[in-house]
Design goal:
Order of helices and strands: HHHHEHHHHEH
Number of helices: 9
Distance between the termini: 18 Å
Structural class: mainly alpha
Number of strands: 2
Helix content: 40-55%
Radius of gyration: 20 Å
Shape: elongated
Length: 194
């Protein structure tokens, strides 16, 4: 949603808007990596380290980078909601020009209260999972941006970052603090699991 609020009104094309989306994903990756580095625990995890390959051989605790494989994974939560929202923006704001950026933002701010017809329009836009290239290409682009922002980056513990698309339970916790989205999702509603 950050790209929507910061850049939608000033974007002259969907391609220009997607460049802003990519920039926001890169910023988010930087923030995540920085927060992770700041949260590194000075607490030793000695018992667990006994069972992790590499720790005994190196004489290092798992928290010190002793593990043979010490890669960090990050969950890509809400991919289908993001792709669906971007497809709805592409269709209504840029292709059909039936919705202005200001009206869309007002509807999201109101959690669609008073904007039921607009919400229905957004809900009827192409959705992931239906073998529709209109939205699937957007999802592919998002995954590419996301993986480029994380994959292979040094994690400071002898390993690298790896982007993943599994959401575990994060589709609930992240969604709980996210406002309404342009796919027609109400504020706080769960993301789709994918």
């Amino acid at each position: 949603n950050r790209a929507l609020y910061r850049s939608l009104a000033s974007s002259e094309s969907f391609a220009q808007f997607m460049t802003c989306v990519k920039g926001e994903l890169e910023k988010e990756a930087e923030e995540t990596i920085k927060k992770s580095a700041e949260m590194q625990s000075p607490v030793k995890i000695q018992y667990l380290s006994l069972f992790v390959g590499g720790c005994l051989e190196k004489g290092l605790d798992i928290s010190e980078g002793g593990a043979k494989y010490n890669n960090y994974g990050v969950h890509g939560v809400g991919l289908s909601n993001a792709a669906d929202a971007l497809a709805a923006i592409k269709k209504t704001v840029f292709d059909d020009r039936s919705v202005t950026p200001c009206r869309l933002i007002a509807a999201l701010d109101a959690d669609f209260d008073g904007y039921g017809e607009l919400r229905n329009t957004l809900l009827s836009c192409p959705k992931m999972g239906n073998n529709d290239d209109y939205v699937d290409r957007i999802a592919e682009e998002l995954i590419d941006y996301y993986s480029e922002a994380f994959n292979g980056r040094d994690n400071g513990h002898g390993g690298i970052w790896r982007a993943g698309s599994g959401s575990a339970q994060s589709y609930r916790t992240h969604a709980a603090v996210t406002g309404a989205t342009a796919d027609g999702r109400h504020a706080g509603d769960y993301y789709a699991c994918s």
